[in-house]
Amino acid sequence: MSTPAVRDPGLQPERTRLAWRRTTLSCTVVSVLAARAALHRSGGAAGVLALAACCLLWIGFLALAHHRLRALVPARPAPLPARWALGAVCCAAGLAVAAGVLIASPA
Could you tell me the superkingdom of the organism this chain comes from (predicted)? Predict the structure, then answer.
């Protein structure tokens, strides 16, 4: 009879922390590129609103990621609450839409 493998409780939270950091970095890159597009093009009021939306959504995602990273400190962290997951998805999707508006706006 073989003994069951011992699970290292530190690996899964570490992988999850790394995934949150990668996603935060991706959102930061999208926000910077959207801001660059807004500064190099004069998109009018729609461009300013899209840039403001990008900034607010980026800050919202950073706050969610920060709270989640702090929650992952123990070896057995609590599951991600549904409202945090929904908030992260809404921030990422909204950021993509707002950045798309900025990039697609005429020069």
Answer: Bacteria
